[in-house]
Design a protein that fits this description.
Blueprint lengths: L18 H5 L30 E4 L12 E5 L5 H9 L3 E7 L2 E3 L13 E4 L5 E4 L4 H18 L3 E5 L14 H17 L3 E5 L5 H4 L5 E5 L11 H5 L4 E5 L4 H11 L2 E4 L9 E2 L1
Parallel strand pairs: 1-2, 2-3, 3-7, 7-8, 8-9, 9-10, 10-11
Antiparallel strand pairs: 4-6, 5-6, 11-12
C-alpha cells in the first residue's frame, strides 16, 4: 500500500525555471539529449553508501544549513542555483519526481493523454497512470529526468513505483511494475544520474541491482525494515523516514540495519530529527 507522501500545494508553488522552458520539456529546445554513446560507466555515477546522512524537504524554501550529506528536494520547484548552492556546501542533491501518477499542478500535465489517466490516488489533483503504456510515458519521464540532469542534480527519487498494489483503475501486474521501474532506472542511468527505489518492498529482490539506493517511508512503524537489507548488503544506502514514531522507537533498529534514518513531519518541510 502506498505510504503517506507530501504533494506540493499548487496554490503556493513557485516555478524554479521559466514556465516556457518547462512547458517545452518534450522538445530539444529545452531538454538536452541523453549522453552520446549511451550510459556512462557505472563507476562514474555517485552512489550513497549505508549510513549516509540525509535531509528530505519537499515544501518551502530549502534550508541549506541542515547538517546532512544528501538533500532530497522537489525537481520542479527548485532550480539549478539551489542545486549549485548545495553542491558548494558539499551536499549531494536528489531530484524528487512523481513517476507513477499524473499531477494537475505540473507544467507538463498536458503531455499525458486522458487514456493513461486512472483513478485518483488519494491526493488532490493526482491520478494514477497506466504504467503499461511505456510508449506514452517513457518520453514524458525522459523529459523530466532531463530536467533533473540539466539542473545539476546527482540522482532521482521517482515516487509511486508500486501502483500495481493499488486500486489504479488498470489491471496492473507485478511484471508491469518491474518493466516500468526498470525503465525509470534506465532513464536516469543514461543521463549519468543514480536512482532510488521508492518503497515497493515486495520487488526489492528483483530490483536491487537496477537501483543505486532505496527511499523508504515508515518501515519501522510497519515492521518492514529488514526487508531493505538487500540494499545495504550491496553497499547501497537506504534513505528512511518515519512520521509517527519517535527516534527512540526506531533508531536502534536503524543502526543495526545500517539505515539512514530520520523523523519527519508528513508535510516534509525543513524540520527533522536524526538518529
Amino acid at each position: 500500500m502506498t505510504r503517506r507522501r507530501f504533494r506540493p500545494d499548487p496554490r503556493g508553488r513557485r516555478l524554479a525555471a521559466p514556465l516556457l522552458c518547462l512547458l517545452l520539456l518534450l522538445t530539444a529546445a529545452c531538454s538536452g539529449p541523453a549522453p552520446p554513446g549511451g550510459a556512462p560507466p557505472d563507476g562514474a555515477r555517485w552512489r550513497p553508501e549505508p549510513g549516509t546522512t540525509w535531509q528530505w524537504q519537499l515544501q518551502g524554501r530549502v534550508d541549506p544549513d541542515v547538517d546532512a550529506e544528501v538533500y532530497d528536494i522537489d525537481g520542479f520547484e527548485n532550480g539549478a542555483a539551489t542545486v549549485a548552492a548545495l553542491h558548494t556546501r558539499g551536499r549531494r542533491v536528489i531530484c524528487y519526481l512523481n513517476a507513477g501518477a499524473w499531477e494537475d499542478f505540473r507544467p507538463d500535465r498536458d503531455a499525458y493523454p486522458p487514456s493513461v489517466l486512472g483513478r485518483g490516488n488519494g491526493w488532490p489533483g493526482e491520478r494514477w497512470v497506466d504504467i503499461r503504456r511505456l510508449d506514452v510515458l517513457r518520453p514524458i519521464l525522459a523529459a523530466r529526468v532531463d530536467m533533473c540532469a540539466r539542473k545539476g542534480f546527482d540522482a532521482v527519487e521517482p515516487d509511486l513505483l508500486d501502483g500495481y498494489r493499488n486500486d489504479t483503475g488498470f489491471p496492473l501486474t507485478a511484471a508491469h511494475q518491474l518493466a516500468f521501474n526498470r525503465t525509470v532506472a534506465e532513464l536516469a542511468h543514461r543521463r549519468g544520474l543514480s536512482v532510488g527505489l521508492k518503497n515497493d518492498l515486495d520487488q526489492i529482490p528483483e530490483l536491487v541491482d537496477d537501483f543505486d539506493f532505496a527511499v523508504n517511508e515508515e518501515c519501522a512503524e510497519f515492521g518492514e525494515c529488514a526487508r531493505l537489507s538487500p540494499f545495504t548488503e550491496r553497499g547501497k544506502a537506504v534513505l528512511h523516514a518515519e512520521y509517527a514514531l519517535s527516534t527512540g522507537e526506531f533508531c536502534d533498529t536503524s543502526r543495526r540495519l545500517r539505515l539512514s534514518s530520520i523523523r519527519k513531519r508528513p508535510a516534509l518541510d525543513a524540520w527533522l530529527r536524526t538518529c
